[in-house]
Specification:
single chain; 215 residues; mainly beta; Lipocalin; 18 strands; 8% helix; elongated; disordered N terminus
Length: 215
């Protein structure tokens, strides 16, 4: 959290409440995380006719190819079919990896990371998520996706003794305080573990959850 606080900077600015946030912001494409039965994991991200494939220790740009299976992406002895679906087949030197299935939860976090999000947090009742992007903006999506608020990211106030970083942001119609506190945190619904607890005050309303740095 302290490292994140050191690199995020900006000044408070305006853009008020906006319409419901789409699954991916305009101009950004989702990433897909596949987990295979043999324990292997890979990430794919589409860019036009090119598909970026992130393997352990290797990143490849695969080109679209057409065959009897439909659209297949390939390069350097590696091919991928079924990208974006519930199942995908990865072949390395002609040998298929076993039963690779889409992990939707991991895909959301990987998409955020690859699209420039530095820190992401989630909470429940009502469901919300917050993203600090490129050290320049803070976006809060609350009320189960119905309300979106955007702020310029201010310089955080850091207390190294307590391990907290606090952002005070405001726009034309709303005020947001984000408190990041280093320490174990467990999501109240999924049970997923995080390293940072998060407290939000939006126009005086309290929201609590967990988060992690993505870079």
């Amino acid at each position: 959290v302290l490292l994140l606080a050191a690199v995020l900077s900006g000044c408070a600015g305006a853009q008020g409440k906006v319409s419901v946030l789409q699954e991916e912001p305009s101009g950004q494409t989702p990433a897909h995380v596949y987990v295979c039965a043999d324990g292997n994991r890979f990430v794919s991200k589409q860019e036009g006719s090119r598909l970026w494939l992130f393997l352990p220790g290797k990143t490849l740009a695969l080109q679209a190819q057409q065959n009897t299976e439909g659209v297949v992406y390939g390069n350097d002895g590696i091919t991928l079919s079924g990208n974006g679906g519930e199942r995908a087949q990865l072949r390395i030197d002609g040998q298929p990896k076993s039963d690779c299935r889409l992990d939707r939860r991991q895909s959301i976090w990987e998409s955020a990371k690859l699209n420039g999000v530095d820190f992401r947090a989630v909470g429940n009742e009502p469901g919300w998520h917050l993203e600090i992007r490129n050290g320049q903006s803070i976006e809060l999506v609350s009320n189960y996706g119905e309300d979106t608020y955007r702020f310029a990211a201010p310089q955080p106030v850091v207390d190294r003794q307590s391990g907290t970083s606090v952002y005070h942001a405001r726009n034309a119609g709303h005020e947001l305080t984000v408190t990041l506190r280093l320490g174990p945190c467990r999501d109240s619904m999924s049970g997923e573990s995080f390293e940072t607890s998060v407290e939000l005050q939006l126009d005086g309303k309290l929201l609590q959850g967990c988060g992690r740095a993505l870079h």
